[in-house]
Amino acid sequence: MKKMVSLDFKWSGLALVSIVAGLTLSGASASSSPRGGAGAAQSAVAGASMEAATQVKIDNFAFTPGAVTVKPGTQVTWVNHDDIPHTVDSTEGKFKSAALDTDDKFQFRFTEPGEYPFYCRMHPKMTGKIIVQP
Ligand SMILES: [Cu+2]
Predict the structure, then answer these.
(1) CA 98 to centroid of ligand 1, rounded, Å
(2) Structural domain of residue 68, as residue ranges?
(3) Which CATH number belongs to the domain containing residue 112 in this structure?
(4) The model's pTM
(5) Å from CA of 24 to ligand 1 middle
(6) Is 109 in the same domain as 65?
(7) What is the 26 CA–ligand 1 centroid distance (Å)?
(8) Which of 82, 102, 129, 132 lies at a 20 to 30 A Cα distance from 39?
(9) pLDDT tens column, 33-78
């Protein structure tokens, strides 16, 4: 008799749990699937925009980091932290900055996969590379 009771209790408990779970699941999927989709899209966009901006510092006659791998569509910003001017020139002539004074910035958006070596035309030993990889 005791066994029967506990069994009944167990089963009704399970049934209750499954009903609640079913309600919660269907309620959640019904009400939040459009919002969930938008949220997922939004966070993907946020993730992409975070990835889509990369900074290269110019400090102490060096580009830091010296080589950066980015996804296509990424905008790279170079910032000169030195107190003398530097430039950012593509070795292959694909981009070319003006002389950057202290805290000046140069930006370029990389859309095509490939490697983009660059240097400072005032100090040609200063070199760096952007690698664009899908
Ligand atoms: Cu320089």
Answers:
(1) 11
(2) 53-132
(3) 2.60.40.420
(4) 0.63
(5) 61
(6) yes
(7) 62
(8) 132
(9) 344 444 444 434 444 444 578 999 999 999 999 999 999 999 999 9
